User: Fold this.
Amino acid sequence: MHASDIIKAKGPKVETIDSGASLGNAIDRLAELKIGALLVTNGSQPVGIISERDVIRVLAGAPTGARETRVAEVMTADLITCTPEDGVDELLDLMTEKRIRHLPVMAGGELKGLLSIGDVVKHRIREVAEEAEALKSYITHG
Assistant:
């Protein structure tokens, strides 16, 4: 199973926010949508990601006007991405190694989707269950 298979199953819709938006707007969108991250864009190009972790880091001990801070000042700009061809094990290894929970899927400079650690783990568990069932069937039916 590959990143493209997970995107097919969950759909390609990606919640985004403009890099010039306020932190308050990002916080409100994260809460409204009940999600952990927004892909930050300049027009249609991904330029970063803003997650709950980024928000907490900024708000910890911040003055009361922190909600007006621009997303571009808070986001993680070193965007780590994957391709549709990357396998589930590669995705899990990358997310673990880089300590990230969200991966934009890019192909030819175009955004194809956004995977969360939950999406990838769910599909890996499904793979393992299917493999176990196939082995059980093989052993039982020879």
